[in-house]
Known about the structure:
This protein is mainly alpha-helical. It has one domain (25-164). 81% of the residues lie in helices and 0% in strands.
Amino acid sequence: MPLLLQNLLQNLPQQLQKLLLWLMGFRYIKFGLVGASGTVVNMAVLYVGQEWMFSVITQPRDRLYASLALAIAVATLNNFTWNRLWTWADRKRALADALPVPGVGRKRQILQQLGQYALASWAGIGLQYGLTLWLAHYVHYLIANVCAILVASISNFLANDRWTFRSKTR
C-alpha cells in the first residue's frame, strides 16, 4: 500500500479504516469495472435515446425522462449479468452446488437474483435518476448522469454484496 494512503488511513477512525480497506478489495474492483462498463452502456443508450430514438418528443427535457429510464434499464441488465458471471461468480457456483438437484431451479434462481438485484439497486437507481434530473438544471445532462452514477455506486455494491449475491453456504 502506498505510504500516502497508509498515512491517510492512520488518521481515520478504526471502523472507517476497515470500511475503506474492504472497499478497496478485489471484489469491489471487479464491481467497479462492471460499473464502468455499465456507465458506457448507460451513456451510449442515453445519448442515442436523447438525440435520435426519442427525437419525436420535441422538448429536450421531456425527452430526457424517457431516454434516462431506458438507459438505466439497459445498464442495470448489463451490470447484473456481468456481476453475476464475474464479480460474484464464486457465490453463484456455491449456490448452484447447494441446489438439491443440479440443473433444476437455475432459471428460477437467476430470475430471483435479478429481482433482488433490481430491488437492491432501486435506491441507487432512484438516486441516480433524481440526481441526474436535478443536476441537469446546472450542467450538461451527460455530466450530471456521470456524477449521479458515482454517488449511487457504493450503496449498490453494499446492497448487492450483502443481499443479492450473499454467500448462502456456511
